[in-house]
Structures are given as C-alpha cells and as structure tokens.
C-alpha cells in the first residue's frame, strides 16, 4: 500500500508523452506521389505497446516507486542524490565516486521527479542545479525499503553437502581443460564457490604443474611456509601437519586476522606405508545442524571470539588482531546466513575472555559443534592419489587427515579469497556479455558498484 505520508503523485513525464504524440503524428502523415500510394496498400505493422511505467510519489524525505499493486520501494532524497551515476558524479572508467557526499545538504529536495522510459529522472534544486537518471531495474535491485535482493548468479547459491551428497555428485574438472579454456576455468571456479571444494584430475605430479594450475586462479599467497610449499612428516616447521599423526577436521590460519581463502593440496607420492586418507567436512552443513538442534550453542559460536596462535617456529609467533580472536561462525547481518567458518581446536590459545557466566555454556557449545562435526554422515573420507589436486574453500570446508606410515609428500599453496572471487566475477562478466570489451560489459549500473 502507498505510504500515508507520501502525497504528491508524479505521473509519467509530460515530455515523454509529448514525444509519443509526436511519433504518432509522423506515422500518420500523408504520403506524396506514386511510391506513397503503393506504400499505403501495404499493411501497417502493429506497434509494440509502450511498457507501463511505475507511478511515483514524493514527500519531504523520500521518493516512493510503485512497482505493482502490492510492491513499493522508498528511497530517501539524500540516498538518491548520493547515488547519481552521471559522469560528473561517478567516473565512467574507474568506477569511482567523484561526488563529495558531504556537500549534499542533509535536507536536499528534488525540484522535479519524472517517470520516463529510461528510468526515474530527478532534477535537484540545491546546492547547484543537477539532473540525475536512475534505471528502473537498478532501483528495484537496490531497494532497501523494503530490502530486495538482486538475482544472483548460480555460483552464489551454495550447495550444502553431507557425506551422501558429495559421494554421489563429487565436483570434478579436468586439468587440461582448465589450463586451456576460460569457459572450463569458469566452471571450475564456480564449482569451488558452490561446493567449497573441487577436484582436478590429470595434473602432472610435480610442484611446477601444481603451481601453474594455482596461478590460473590468481596470485599465490605467501606465508611463513613460503609460496608453493612441499612437505612431509619431517617437522620442517613446528606444525602437526609436518608429522604423521591424525589431524581432526579444521580450517587453516585461525591465527591470522585474514585467513587464506583457498587451499590447494596435491599428493605427489605415498610409498612404503598406509593410511593418510583425507577428511573433508562442509562447515555450512555443520553450522546448519547446530543451529537446528542447539540454537543456544549456535548463538554462542557466532558471538564468542576464540583466541588462536601459531608458535611452533622460533622465528614466528602469530596471533590474530585483536588477540581475543574471532567467533567460530561469522553470520551475514543482512541475510542471517553463515558465510565464514573458523575452527581449529589444536591451535586454540588460553580462553580467558569469555564471561564467567558463559564459560560452561561456551564449552557445551563447542561440544555440540564437535558432535555435529564428527558425525559419520558429515564426514567425507577420500584417499588422495598423485595427479589429482583438491582445492578447498578454507573459510568454509574443514579438512583433516588420518594417521599414516611410510613416506607421504604433498605440495600446495594458499590463495586469497578476494583474488579468487575477483577472477570468478570477471569470468562471469565475460560469459554474460560475450565479446564486449570491459568498459561495455561493466558499466556504471553494474551489480556490486
């Protein structure tokens, strides 16, 4: 329903209607000569009906757009002026703001509001006269009152999996496809984003080929372990990964303020022994189970920070900033969905910042988390083989390892989440816009700007 405080109805622009009338006059103007007479015998094709434009209302603070009888959006005047995308206010090449937001009067008012075929046109009266245009689709996708969510690419819709799901639909791609073809590369990155994990078959069993595969995604993130790392059970670093003991499901880098986004593993050899199976668990599945079965524990896991450290090497001592750490689960404030899982009980530091009234409840919360994490239905065990790489979203999927004997050597790398997502978005843009160059396929109204 229309807001009672919105009073002025603004109909489709008068100049737009005048233009339509003028076009109708030209279409019916008498023809001259024989050619005209011949043309008159031809049927005149029916014109496409003009699309119905939204109605708008204006009050002292907002412009309301009536999309349909039961859907309306409201936009504050200051928000509309701040989001002008003309070339004076928003650079068409760099896609950066040029308007000084703080020069906009807090009580700015439109002088005129017109609904046109191109979009909503607003003429501003102060502090300097200015005209802004907002495409209808852009306004609808960016509605915040009420909040509307723009359509998402398929890769932004996660597949939350358990043991049964991933065994029957294991996400897999071929090495030579992703190395030679950008469409295949896009398919690979989309699977990583949707599933949080993807296997790559046919990779030559050496460090250089694994590095080349990683660089198809983005930059390699250098840490205390180097850029590309190759390790076995020799304790070359003070980390239990450099032993042969079993490792429970965990995410890496909980001791970093910004943990790695992706992690790549490639088993180069395993000789003279057994064991070493890889464990994968979808953190989103575990979070969903905890939320369903233990809502109070879910609340604590998403609120109470956990301090962590990496201190096994004498020349490094990592702790996150702030030292109190971060919660196990990060929740998107706008959707309520879990977007980041951070869990490694082995790297947990002294817990001394939890309120005393919550300490026992917090221990129960991590017990409930561990119960859901270690259920057989959540665990996916796989025996890695040379020539198969596994890529893991380190901020979602937890990994572990069974105890092993013999010589087992892996190589791998870390990659930044933002670098990975940038590459995926660019490949998606290319696929959506075909052969258009970057400035044509990404304009000032593109999603996310």
Automatic annotation (TrEMBL):
<keyword id="KW-0223">Dioxygenase</keyword>
<protein>
    <recommendedName>
        <fullName>trimethyllysine dioxygenase</fullName>
        <ecNumber>1.14.11.8</ecNumber>
    </recommendedName>
</protein>
<keyword id="KW-0479">Metal-binding</keyword>
<comment type="function">
    <text>Converts trimethyllysine (TML) into hydroxytrimethyllysine (HTML).</text>
</comment>
<dbReference type="Pfam" id="PF02668">
    <property type="entry name" value="TauD"/>
</dbReference>
<keyword id="KW-0124">Carnitine biosynthesis</keyword>
<feature type="domain" description="TauD/TfdA-like">
    <location>
        <begin position="172"/>
        <end position="414"/>
    </location>
</feature>
<dbReference type="InterPro" id="IPR038492">
    <property type="entry name" value="GBBH-like_N_sf"/>
</dbReference>
<comment type="similarity">
    <text>Belongs to the gamma-BBH/TMLD family.</text>
</comment>
<dbReference type="InterPro" id="IPR050411">
    <property type="entry name" value="AlphaKG_dependent_hydroxylases"/>
</dbReference>
<keyword id="KW-0408">Iron</keyword>
<dbReference type="InterPro" id="IPR010376">
    <property type="entry name" value="GBBH-like_N"/>
</dbReference>
<dbReference type="GO" id="GO:0045329">
    <property type="term" value="P:carnitine biosynthetic process"/>
</dbReference>
<keyword id="KW-0560">Oxidoreductase</keyword>
<feature type="domain" description="Gamma-butyrobetaine hydroxylase-like N-terminal">
    <location>
        <begin position="59"/>
        <end position="139"/>
    </location>
</feature>
<dbReference type="InterPro" id="IPR042098">
    <property type="entry name" value="TauD-like_sf"/>
</dbReference>
<dbReference type="InterPro" id="IPR003819">
    <property type="entry name" value="TauD/TfdA-like"/>
</dbReference>
<dbReference type="InterPro" id="IPR012776">
    <property type="entry name" value="Trimethyllysine_dOase"/>
</dbReference>
<comment type="pathway">
    <text>Amine and polyamine biosynthesis; carnitine biosynthesis.</text>
</comment>
<dbReference type="Pfam" id="PF06155">
    <property type="entry name" value="GBBH-like_N"/>
</dbReference>
<dbReference type="GO" id="GO:0050353">
    <property type="term" value="F:trimethyllysine dioxygenase activity"/>
</dbReference>
<dbReference type="GO" id="GO:0005506">
    <property type="term" value="F:iron ion binding"/>
</dbReference>
<dbReference type="GO" id="GO:0005739">
    <property type="term" value="C:mitochondrion"/>
</dbReference>
């Amino acid at each position: 329903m229309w807001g009672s405080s919105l009073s002025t109805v603004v109909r489709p622009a008068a100049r737009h209607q005048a233009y339509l009338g003028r076009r109708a006059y030209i279409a019916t103007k008498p023809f001259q000569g024989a050619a005209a007479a011949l043309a008159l015998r031809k049927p005149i094709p029916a014109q496409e009906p003009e699309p119905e434009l939204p109605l708008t209302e204006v009050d002292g603070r907002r412009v309301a757009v009536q999309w349909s009888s039961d859907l309306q959006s409201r936009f504050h005047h200051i928000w509309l002026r701040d989001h002008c995308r003309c070339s004076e206010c928003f650079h068409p090449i760099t896609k950066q703001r040029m308007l000084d937001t703080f020069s906009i009067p807090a009580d700015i008012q439109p002088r005129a509001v017109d609904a046109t075929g191109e979009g909503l046109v607003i003429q501003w009266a102060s502090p300097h006269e200015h005209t802004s245009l907002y495409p209808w689709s852009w306004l609808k996708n960016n509605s915040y009152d009420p909040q509307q969510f723009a359509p998402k690419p398929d890769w932004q819709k996660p597949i939350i999996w358990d043991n049964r799901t991933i065994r029957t639909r294991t996400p897999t791609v071929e090495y030579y496809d992703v190395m030679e073809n950008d469409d295949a590369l896009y398919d690979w990155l989309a699977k990583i984003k949707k599933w949080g994990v993807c296997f790559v078959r046919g990779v030559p069993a050496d460090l250089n080929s694994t590095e080349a595969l990683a660089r198809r995604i983005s930059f390699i993130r250098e840490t205390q372990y180097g850029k590309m790392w190759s390790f076995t059970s020799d304790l070359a670093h003070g980390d239990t990964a450099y032993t042969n003991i079993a490792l429970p499901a965990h995410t890496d880098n909980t001791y970093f303020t910004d943990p790695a986004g992706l992690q790549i593993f490639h088993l180069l050899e395993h000789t003279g022994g057994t064991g070493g199976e890889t464990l994968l668990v979808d953190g989103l599945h575990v979070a969903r189970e905890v939320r369903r079965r233990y809502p109070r524990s879910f609340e604590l896991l998403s609120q109470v920070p956990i301090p962590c450290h990496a201190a096994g090497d004498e020349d490094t001592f990592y702790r996150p900033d702030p030292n109190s750490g971060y919660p196990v689960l990060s929740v998107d404030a706008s959707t309520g969905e879990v977007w980041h899982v951070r869990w490694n009980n082995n790297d947990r530091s002294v817990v001394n910042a939890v309120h005393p009234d919550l300490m026992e409840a917090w221990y129960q919360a991590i017990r409930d988390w561990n119960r859901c994490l270690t259920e057989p239905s959540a665990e996916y065990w796989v025996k890695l083989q040379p020539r198969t790489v596994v890529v893991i979203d380190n901020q979602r999927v937890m990994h572990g390892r069974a105890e092993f004997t013999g010589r087992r050597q892996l190589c791998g790398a870390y990659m930044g989440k933002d670098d990975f997502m940038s590459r995926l978005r660019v490949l998606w843009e290319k696929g959506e816009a075909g052969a258009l160059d970057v400035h044509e396929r990404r304009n000032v109204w593109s999603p996310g700007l």
